[in-house]
Amino acid sequence: MDNQLIIADPDEDFRTRLRVGLELEGNFQVVADVPNAEAVIAAVATWTPSVVILDLSIDGPVGLDVLPLIRSTAREATIIGTSHDPQLRELAIGAGVDSFIAKTSNTMQELNEVLSDHLAAAE
Fold first, then answer.
1. Residue closest to 78 by CA, chosen among 100, 109, 59, 104
2. Which of 54, 62, 117, 123 has its CB surrounded by the most CB atoms within 10 Å?
């Protein structure tokens, strides 16, 4: 499957909810869900995914710091930044994420919309 996806988030429950939701949708294969920056860098090098969902607080303030490392390995990947703080949207977009989703009760719905756009662009 070309639509391989990595979830990088320190919250195990959030990663699990995303994984289950994405597996039910069936358009993406979640190849890794990881809790920290070191693990996401290793996972991206292993899988070269088409999508990375990156919590911007992963390992504290360094979530945005791993973007260049992800980009250097998976140049074509769509990187979706997430955070509980919706005010990080502009900072995240400016730093190089392709999309930003605030963690709310609508996170899965918003994520499905962004991923649908990704699939449409890939066709």
1. 100
2. 54
Please list the residues that pair with 34 across neighbouring strands.
Answer: 8
Smallest CA-to-CA distance from 50 within 67, 68, 73 is with 73
Ordered structural domains, the chain, with CATH: 4-116 (3.40.50.2300)
At 40-78, the pLDDT tens digits run 999 999 999 999 999 998 876 567 889 999 999 999 999
pTM of the model: 0.92
Using left for φ > 0, alpha for ψ between -120 and 50, and beta otherwise, residue 59 falls in left
CB of 8 within 8 A of CB of 65? no
Structure tokens at 67: 């973007």
d(CA 44, CA 47): 5
Q: What are the angstrom distances between the C-alpha of 86 and each of 15, 56, 92, 100, 102?
A: 19, 11, 10, 9, 5
